[in-house]
Amino acid sequence: MCLTMAVSYIHTPQSLRVSPGGRCFTYCLYNHKNRPSSVVSASFHKSDNDLFMESKVDTLLNSVKWDEKGLAVAIAQNVDTGAILMQGFTSREALAATISSRKATFYSRSRSMLWTKGETSMNFINIHDIFLDCDRDSIIYLGKPDGPTCHTGSETCYYSSVFDFLRLPKVEENKLAVTSLYSLESTILQREAELASPQIGKPSWTKRLMLDPVLLCSKIREEAAELCQTLEENENKSRTASEMADLLYHAMVLLRLKDVNMEDVLQIIRHRFSQSGIEEKQSRKSK
C-alpha cells in the first residue's frame, strides 16, 4: 500500500481527529481552544489485491442474514478441543474487525459498542477460521484462547450440566461441556488426584497403571501390537476400533504422568497440517 502525505506543520498540537473520505483521509490537529490549528491530508493508494479482498469481504458481509437490529449469533469454539467457549452477538462491523484482526470481536448490546474478547483480561481468542451456518444467520469463531474464556475464570462459559441438576441432589458447577475424549482425560486426572488420599480397597486400574510405569509401558506396547494385528490378520472394524480405544486410553494415562494434555498433542497435529511427514521427521533430527 502506497501512502502519500501533504503535511502542514504545527509545534504543539493538542488533539487529532480523522475524517475519512474514500481513499483519502484528512487529519485535523486541534489546539486547546478546540479550533483546528493544522491539517494533514493523506491519500492511501490500495493495491488491486487489497481492493479485491475488500470486495470479497463486503460480499460476505452482505450475505449474512442480520436480524432487525443488525446482529447475528456468534459462537466461539476451541480449534483444538472442539469445546464451545462462549456465545455472543456480532454485527457487520464486528465480523469485519474479526476478519481483519484475527481476534474474536463481538457487539455488546448493553453498551452498544464493539468489544474484543480479551481486551481487558488479555485472554484473547485467536481466530483460525470463521464458519457460517446453512441459513447464514449464525457464526462460529474457530480459534485458540490465550486463557480462560469465562469471566468466572472457567475455561469455558458452559459448566452447568442440566442432567446432573435433574438427577443429583447437589450439583457442583464445574463440569465442562466436553467431548468423550476430554471426559476420559478428566477422569484420568481425577484418578491422579485421588492418589494423594489413603487407599480404601483395591485401587482402580488407572491408579495401578500410574503407580507402576513398567506395567503401563508394557500395556501400551501390548495394545499397539494388538492394533497392528487387526490390520495384519484382516480383523473387522469393530475389533480395530476396540483396540484403538485401549491403546488411546493407556497412552493418555502416560500423558497424564508426563503432565501433557491432549490439547497439547492436538495443537501439534494442527501445526503439522501444512508440513509433510518427511519435513517433520527431518526437523526432529536437527533439534
Provide a quick synopsis of the model.
This protein has 287 residues and is an alpha+beta fold. The chain is 40% helix and 24% strand. Helix 4 (180-194) packs across helix 7 (237-257) and helix 6 packs antiparallel against helix 7 (237-257).
Describe the protein's architecture and organization.
By secondary structure, this protein is α+β, with helices and mostly antiparallel strands. Helix content is 40%, strand content 24%. The protein has nine helices and ten strands. The strands form three sheets. The protein has a four-stranded antiparallel beta sheet, with no helix packed on it. The protein has a four-stranded mixed beta sheet with strand order 6-5-10-9, covered by helices on one side. Strands 7-8 form a two-stranded antiparallel sheet. Helix 6 (213-232) runs antiparallel to helix 7 (237-257). The longest helix is centred in the C-terminal third of the chain and has 21 residues, at 237-257.
Strand order of the largest sheet: 1-4-3-2
Instruction: Provide mean pLDDT, rounded.
Output: 84
The helical percent reads: 25-40%
Number of strand elements: 10
Give the ordered list of helices and strands. EEEEHEEHEEEEHHHHHHH
Query: Spans of 5+ residues with little confidence (pLDDT < 50)?
Result: 1-43
Percent strand = 15-25%
Shape: globular
